[in-house]
Amino acid sequence: MCILWVFWFFWCLMACLGVAWLSLCTLHRFQKNPTVISLERNYLDWNTTLSALSLCPLLKANQEEVHRVARFVFSGDLEKGVEFLNSLANWTYPNLGQIIANHEIEPSDYQDLLMSLRVNFSYILPNLPTIQELSLSMTEVGICYSLNSQMAFYGDPRFWMSNGWNLRKPVTLIHGNPLDVAELSVQVNDIKVSFNVYLHDSEEVVDGSSNSMFPVRLQEAMYLDTNVLSIYSTDATRKLSVQQRKCRFMDESNLETSPVYSYRLCQSECRMHLSLKLCGCIPYFYRNSGKYKVCGSTGMNCLNKYRDRLLKLREGNKREECDCFQNCNFVNVWTTRVLQGAW
């Protein structure tokens, strides 16, 4: 009788331990990896958003304005003033470089100064299916103009100067179902400046590490044929914590520089904090409420020494701890054909 009791006690104990172990495994999986990726089979939901297009002028400053400001500010040395202003305008990722000393202009004024020196240009958007204009934003590669972007508005220094932090009504993006239309297309015509073209998700931005870049010279035309792969999260995903789903929605920003979130914005903010750590200041092209010191010529030359580390956010095999999650909704864009020639 005693042996029988021990036998049943042992197996009941094993069963309880097994149930407890299985429950803990299920709970751990729910906490750490509760989501799944599946293929959308309902063709009625195959709506795809056209990628955003960002145009970043290669000429960073209007030379007439550069000479006007140089005559006013650097009255004793016009040549030095022109050199400094052009060096400042071109000091962007990944083109950090040495910059001459300057004591005439406060670093906190660099952003406003470069906005006044920017190159203005006209353009035509023929047959656009939605009402849109090119939206200005200040990025790590300089001032850019974006189309079909939800993010560009929040990168406009004029929005920063107004202390704006509220979300605006989303832009009506260009999108379509591949079963309804053969292709989605957009044209930007009659631009009288040379520029770099960047393709990216409409809920992403251009940053110093962006590599989908195509240079277009003056009086050149370029045709880009692209494919896109859309990944979106269902409404049920929002009920999970960020740590559970390992992604953030655009309106779930935890950034101090932007009311909206994207992976590259998070990387940019990480780069900003690394700049502060390495050289005690931040570059002029970040949103700054006055909390951090803006780099002057000494700080910019210091950052130039760490260019690779700042761009890659890595030192050797050690990654910087940025704590950046991917976007919950994003469109992966790649180019299948590039045609370029004289206009």
UniProtKB/TrEMBL annotation:
It is a multi-pass membrane protein. InterPro entries: ENaC. Keywords: Ion channel, Ion transport, Membrane, Signal, Sodium, Sodium channel, Sodium transport, Transmembrane, Transmembrane helix, Transport. Belongs to the amiloride-sensitive sodium channel (TC 1.A.6) family. One of its GO terms (cellular component) is plasma membrane. GO terms for molecular function: ligand-gated sodium channel activity. It holds the Pfam family ASC. This is Uncharacterized protein. Residues 1-18 form the signal peptide. It is found in: Membrane. It comes from the Eukaryota. Gene3D superfamilies: Acid-sensing ion channel domain.
